[in-house]
Task: structure prediction
Amino acid sequence: MLPRYDLRALHRNLDIMTTLIKYMQELGWEPYANDHEDGTCQFEANWTYSDALTTADRHTFFKWMVKTLAEESGLLATFMPKPFTHLTGNGAHFHMSLWDAENQTNLFLDDRIPAPGRIENRLGDGAANPYLAATVLLAAGLDGIENQIDPGVQNEDNLYEVPEDELQRRGIYSLPATLGEAADALEQDEVIKDALGTTYADNYIQVKREEWRDYHLRVSEWETDNYLEVY
Result:
């Protein structure tokens, strides 16, 4: 049974959570919902939206604030995407609206968009740089608008339950499965590289490839568990 919305776990950490919310209120962020999530001692905090840059600033400061409060209580807070194999990971979902600044109109108030005036992208995780993530999501969306790219038929299936051959028939493909594959995909994406700036993008790709190579120089626990006594 998942501990989602578990009041017992919330109460055990109530001092930290109420202090965090108090600080967010004092900063003028207008927090409106906080709860215990799927993972053990995993919490979600929500505050009122703002423009992309302000939200990225707040997200960055929020992570530092959470870690500092945890350390003061002798605890460790982490936003690592998947700190435990058997528990739910940490996401960084993006709720996005597109505004006409001149007319102060939300362009996503459209019957074709299921949510009221926004879309949600759940690809980001706790390790995401909010400035880079917001930049590339905005760039990809604007490129789709400018070039009138057809997003395809709206999917209402649980894709975890759709067979692989059916996904391919529909033209639904998986994202890069490794950091190395992601770096290769970024290298081929001129839209995203242009949004980031080609010099920065090239340096970023190089750093991530070095990180991927360094990862492969380590022997993992999975390898020793599966191979140590076999070979």
